[in-house]
Amino acid sequence: MKPIAFLAITAIAALGITHTSPSLAKVDKNCAIDKPGDEVSYEEAQEVYECLAEKMAKGYNKGNDKKRWVNADHVRDYRDWTKASTLPANPGFHSDRFLLTFVNETGADAYTKFEEGVTMPVGTVIAKESFSINGKGKAKVGPLFIMEKAAKGASPKTGDWYYTMVSAKGKPQGINVYKACHECHSGFEDSDFLAYPVEEVRAE
Ligand code: HEC
Question: Ligand 1: which of 185, 191, 202 to mutate, judged by most atoms within 8 Å of the beta carbon?
Answer without folding.
Answer: 185
